[in-house]
Amino acid sequence: MIPAAFDYAAPATVEEALALLAEHGDDAKIIAGGQSLLPVLRLRLNAPEFVIDLGKIDRLRGVREDGDALVIGAMTTHSAVANDPLVAQHAALISKAVATVADAQVRNRGTFGGALAHADPAGDVGAPALALGAEFVIAGQGGATRTVDAADFFVDLFETAIGEDELLTEIRVPKHTGWGAHYEKFVRIAQQWSIVAVAAAVKAEGGTISEARVALTNMGSTPLRATAVEQALQGKPATEDAIREAVGAVADGTNPPTDLNGDADYRKHLAQVLTRRAVLTAAGG
Amino acid sequence: MTVTDDRPAAEIGKDRRRKEDRRLITGSSRYTDNIVLPGMLHLAMVRSPFAHAKITAIDTSEAKQASNVVAVYTAADLDESAGVLINAWPITPDQKAPVHAPLPADRVSFAGEIVAVVVARSAAAARDAAEMVDVDYDELPAALDLKDAVADKVLAHPDLGTNKSALWIFDSKEAGTGGDVEEAISAARSDGVVIEREFRQNRLIPAFMEPRSVVVDPTGEQLTMWSATQVPHIVRFALAATTGVPESKIRVIAPDVGGGFGGKLQVTPEEWLAWWIARQLHKPVKFTETRSESMMAAHHGRDQWQKLTLAATKEGKVTGLKVELTADLGSYVAIVGGGVPVLGAFMYNAIYKIPAYHFACQTVLTNKTWTDAYRGAGRPEATFAIERLMSDLADELGMDPFELREKNWIKHEEFPFTTVAGLEYDSGNYEAATASAKEFFGYDELRAEQARRRDSRDPVQLGIGISTFTEMCGLAPSRVLGSLDYGAGGWEHASVRMLATGKVEVVTGTSAHGQGHETAFSQIIADRLGVPFEDVEVLHGDTQVSVKGLDTYGSRSLVVGGEALVRAADKVVEKAKPVAAHLLEASVDDIEFSAGRFGVKGTDAGLSIQEVAGAVFSAHNLPDGMEPSIDAEATFDPINFNYPHGTHLCAVEVDTETGQIKMRKYTCVDDVGNIINPLIVEGQVHGGLAQGIAQALFEDAVFDERGTLVSGSFVDYLVPSAADLISFDAHHASTPATTNTLGTKGVGEAGTIASTPAVVNAVLDAVRQFGVKDIVMPCSPARVYAAIAAGRAVDTGSASEGADQ
Amino acid sequence: MTKIELTVDGSKVSDDVEPRMLLVQFLREKLGKTGTLIGCDTSNCGACTVHLDGHAVKSCNMLAVQADGSEVTTIEGLADTYDGGELHPMQAAFHECHALQCGFCTPGMIMRSVDLLGENPDPSEQEIREGLEGNLCRCTGYHNIVRAVQTAAAAGKGAQA
Questions:
Q1: A227-256 per-residue burial string, b: 16 or more CB within 10 A, e: under 16
Q2: What's the pLDDT score for residue B801?
Q3: Which residues does chain C have within 8 Å of residue A105's beta carbon, measured at their own beta carbons?
Q4: CB A273 to CB B700 under 8 A?
Q5: Which residue among C52, C77, C102 closes a domain?
Q6: Are residues B653 and B744 in the same domain?
Q7: Where is the segment annotated Disordered (chain B) (predicted)?
Q8: CB contact under 8 A, A8 and C25
Q9: Confidence of residue C72 (pLDDT cuts 50, 70, 90)
Q10: With contact defined as beta carbons under 8 Å apart, do B277 and B285 qualify?
Q11: Whether residue B709 is found in the same domain as residue B783
């Protein structure tokens, strides 16, 4: 219950934070909302020597529009994202998924960027970001900034494209205004991590799916985009039978875990059922 | 007799809001971990990561050098005054039980066992230094799986030579309470029905919300221990019996205690170590476990295999029941660990007239966390078994499950009824409770909906589960306990003190930890003495105040402790009578006591009992030779157990595509006799239901192949939240108990006992149509889905005919 | 040691704390606010819930240093209840509806329930249940907790009308 001792700084700017990262290297750990980090520290599963708190960097918080994109500051809390009218309008899938993260108290502290950078495959923010083709803005040493596509951002279990001396500053989400969206999350008890979840955004016109975005939570070591399913859905009527057929192969090539909640085959089966339901709901069915 | 207008309304039966609440809702609570004493030192435990290992070396030198560390202890430091943890219920004379020292000498026998203790000036320093203790282990093969363990494949404690701890048998023919079960079974095999099943009772973690905590203050003449315990009196006795400190020098206090459910009726290594270390260092010490420590080291519950054979006629009359139980004790025989299955032994016949009965239980040692009482203790297992069997039998015979039950249960006019297990049930009305439950539930409408969903092949199928139950609670008649080789009696103590100001101080030997004794007991005394509810103060949970008692477990507080209160109060009245007569200048024979007032027959003259108390305090004018006290105490030993019963109905929706279960409706009608406070009774039922439902659907303490507890936190051990449960439709029926003055029955365990089989029967009822006969608890979606898929595969001869087709 | 300044239950406090000290430990051990309780080490149980700048958070799941400059309200600051003062409507509803037994989850449950009604003054039963998903209770089966939140919501509506 008591973390190992560490030194601490709460820089006021991204530049100061990057300088601290450069100085402490491997020994440092960034704390954003801390909702995943603190349990790890309390259980002493990790014991960094230095903790850099991003909580005082105001410019990392907030949601704004930038042309065709919505820009979400990395330190924006889940609650703020879930309740943000711009997100609801232009990236409803993210609103819906983020509203299912953990519980209200955790959403009040936990941050969108922090959860993405933590990259827990059972977390609920990766799949919607991936589905909508988000871009990740990463600040590096010496004022460098680079942008990484969602497809390249998630590298492995708890591993992203963010380098050791870099910081995730914002997430740019292409606007999906007018798309239907649904996040279908499967759990045994409410506050559990997703056993499997499916993020689906659908553009439907006159009962026909013109475009679809689908990504899976906890079906592998990273969130997975179901591009084959997206293609199969294109041009299909938004009916249960048509969707059932189009999503039939959603679990192909996935590598879900086996644990107390079910084995890999069960998860593959769930992925099929949940994808059908997610797409159908997103399509207004 | 004159009834005056100011006669207080009856308190018993009133839904009084609780006296306990204010401190708890305002944050003025006093849980053990809140206590801070001058110079207090903090303990941190070094625990074994291995289920079974030889300790080859412990290096404490670095930890001892760490700043703010005061001491580090290992088993080598302990002496006789450290005591041992006791097993109070050796269920057979030849029971095998390893010695349970607070620290094991050279071998750990479960993952989480304490091997060293660090004492430091702060909890943080203690934890830091604990990480520096270097322990070398030689890992040994561990006895983990219960069925392997009973075959002695690997020994949990090699020096004992076997894992089999005790074999306890009850046979109705031998006991003269019924016939020969083997005869009944073979008769049924040739001309009847035999249902054979093997059920798994999942291992559960009591998961009280307050982690265990202990503070010991060795300063002053008397040693004081505060502990988050259900059993301060038993802790005091056990400390005295094993650590050499006289009982008179020990004060144990259970302050506010955050739940127990049986999980805190233990005497623990943590308490014993804190006690010994405080005495070594002459300083107050505190230890509060983390949740993770609690999950692996506080005792678990259930964990049994039940092999069952039920014999019946083709008409559905049960003729015999054979129960062969294997029960996992974990690595030590806990205080009443061996006795838990024995508490179930008398309940497998439940509410039914079963002519022949045989029960055998083998308790088994393994290298897992020790097990002991968890809400219901033995009785939920028994109820689950028989209620599953009755529903399966009904299914086998194509009979309505209610009709089958009714055919076999004891009719209300047959009470008192002596059962095949040898108990005498005093009262009950199963017909009434069941009829009422069916009506509240909307049974016929739900059956109709079920049929519609079946006909339309709805992916979401409805299931309706039935469970009736009775239980033996109110532990317990001391003679019966003696005959079962239990180490103590089952009486309870109370005293009533009439204070000078008119207030009444009531002391009970029971020890509440959420049950609301301060409120319910005030109601009893207010009625019995005719004093205002507000004037009664109930004291408990401190052995220096409550000098005598046997604490709270087994739904005993009201039916045993409450009766002690009644008797003490009646003695107060009897003692006050001559004083009243003296003051009213009347003959004692003419004094009547009613509604708090001593009156003189045929006159308006009278005195309130509070006025009499004032007169006794001043003692200016008492009858000659009378001692100036009307205080009284009573110790009550029940002559029988107490038998609440009820009928529970559960409807679940099963998503056949995923196996997900959604609870639709839960109705119960519990007969707990006369009710002191309906609000508190309902609360007990609700909480019990949640725990029983959780056993059926969510909770499971799982160990991996090396003996590590996988579900060792609330991340993996699935305690349901509000979002995972529904509002309950809970009602009462009432046939008063005949074995206590108030006619009350225990309610603490009822909900837990009845709900588990009701839920599982409901799940099975939804999926029997697919050929499913059993689903192991907890009925997780994965298991439910697998069962449906397997059933369908058998039905159609094709495994690929999945639900998603 | 890091210096922090914050407001707790209406009083300004400043202290030097180890960066590793959790907010709940600061509240309990440094300020004696023992009304806020610790029930787990994985931030599942919610017993330690307090308000941080008006919203419910788990005080075990943040560092005291992270609360620097913030306003924290604990169960002890919800209403001026010392010396028999009036309860907060949510506290009163918990009492009235018998929404607690052992009381250990209660401070956190009340703090979260107050926040829940702040977000949604007129929640459905399902919204209440889901809104309380981060708070575990082992005694009540939640039945009466849900009733209490409904009662407090109704009282709140009555007060506004």
A1: eebbebbeebebeeebbbebbbebbeebeb
A2: 38
A3: 46, 49, 56-58, 61, 112, 134
A4: no
A5: C77
A6: yes
A7: 1-20
A8: no
A9: very high
A10: yes
A11: yes
Distance from CA of A94 to the nearest CA of B (A): 22
pTM of the entire structure? Answer: 0.97
A260 vs B658: CB contact, 8 Å cut-off? no
User: What confidence score (pLDDT) does residue B5 get?
Assistant: 45
Q: Which residue of A has its CA nearest to C22?
A: A2
Assess if residue B582 is contained within a domain. yes
B677 is in which domain, residue-wise? 426-467+641-805
| DSSP secondary structure of A215-229 | EEESSSSS-EE-HHH
Residues of chain B with Cβ-Cβ distance to C130 below 8 Å are 722-723
- Number of folded domains that form chain B: 2
B692 and B777 in a single domain? The answer is yes
Q: pLDDT of B337-382, one tens digit each?
A: 999 999 999 999 999 999 999 999 999 999 999 999 999 999 999 9
Q: Which residue would you say has higher pLDDT here, C85 or B549? A: B549
- Would the CB atoms of C76 and B516 count as touching at under 8 Å? no
Instruction: Write the ipTM.
Output: 0.97
Which pLDDT does position B9 carry in this prediction? 63
Q: Which of C133, C136, C149 should one mutate to test binding to chain A, selecting the residue with the greatest count of A CBs within 10 A?
A: C133
Residue B623 lies in a domain: yes
Which stretches within B359-516 are classed as H helix? 379-397, 401-408, 430-441, 443-455, 478-483
Inform me whether the C-beta atom of residue C57 falls under 8 Å from chain A C-beta atoms.
Answer: yes
Sequence-distant contacts of A243-247: CB under 8 A, at least 24 apart: A243/A209, A243/A276, A243/A279, A243/A280, A243/A283, A243/A285, A244/A276, A244/B804, A246/A279, A247/A214, A247/A272, A247/A275, A247/A276, A247/A279
For residue B796, the model assigns a pLDDT of 66
- CB–CB contact B714 C42 (8 Å): yes
Residue B122 CB neighbour total at 10 angstroms: 15
CATH number, domain of B617, equals: 3.30.365.10
To the nearest whole angstrom, how far is the Cα of C77 from the nearest Cα of chain B? 9
Please say which residue of B636, B670, B689 terminates a domain. B636
CA distance C126 to chain B (A): 7
Say whether both C57 and C96 belong to one domain. no
Of B24, B28, B686, the CB nearest to C140: B686
Which of A6, A34, A191 minimises the CB distance to C62? A34
> For the segment B59-106, what is each residue's pLDDT rounded down to a tens digit?
999 999 999 999 999 999 999 999 999 999 999 999 999 999 999 999
In chain A the domains, ranked by start, together with CATH numbers, are 7-54 (3.30.43.10), 61-174 (3.30.465.10), 180-282 (3.30.390.50)
